Amino acid sequence: MNQPVETDAAQQAAKKARDGRNLALALGLVAFVVLVFVVTLVRLGGNVAKPHI
After folding, report:
1. What residues have CB less than 8 Å from 14, skipping those under 6 apart?
2. pLDDT exceeds 60 at position 3
3. What does the angle CA 29 – CA 39 – CA 48 come to, to the nearest 5 degrees?
4. Can you tell me the distance from the alpha carbon of 40 to that of 3, in angstroms, rounded to the nearest whole number?
5. How many CB atoms lie within 10 A of CB 39?
6. Beta carbons within 8 Å of 6's beta carbon, 6+ residues apart
7. Across residues 4-33, what is the average pLDDT?
8. Most exposed among 7, 30, 33, 51, judged by the fewest C-beta atoms under 10 Å?
9. CB neighbours of 5 closer than 8 A, spacing ≥ 6?
């Protein structure tokens, strides 16, 4: 079957686009983990301040 011939410039552009998407996904995942961590600390901190007696 005939496959399109990719030039070096097209391959470099595709790699740059993939790298950008990967970086955006990584930053989004890190932001989510930090958000969950902060929310957990806030919720636990509230329970430490007022222990159940």
Report:
1. 6
2. yes
3. 145
4. 52
5. 10
6. 14
7. 93
8. 51
9. none
